[in-house]
Amino acid sequence: MKEFAIYTGLRAALFAVCLAVLWFALRGALSIWPIALLALIISSILSIYVLRAARDRLASQIENRAERISHRIEQARTAEDDD
Predict the structure, then answer these.
(1) How confident is the model at residue 83 (pLDDT cuts 50, 70, 90)?
(2) Domain spans, the chain
(3) Which pairs with CB-CB distance under 8 Å and at least 24 residues apart come from 11-15?
């Protein structure tokens, strides 16, 4: 779960940076809601490239956990067949 917390924190930080930059650039032209929506869109696009390494680590952790669970299920199934 550590990798999930790191990735989520990085996504939130990237959104906060985008929101701050857009707020200072557009605060006279737009209200907070359009700026926040624009920051959400921009941070989502940027996260594809900027957070690739963190996302790959998270995906690897999830894949490893799924393999362990599948292995345990298979062991339980073979143990049940032996009885």
Answers:
(1) low
(2) 2-82
(3) 11/43, 11/47, 11/51, 14/43, 14/46, 14/47, 14/50, 14/51, 15/39, 15/40, 15/43
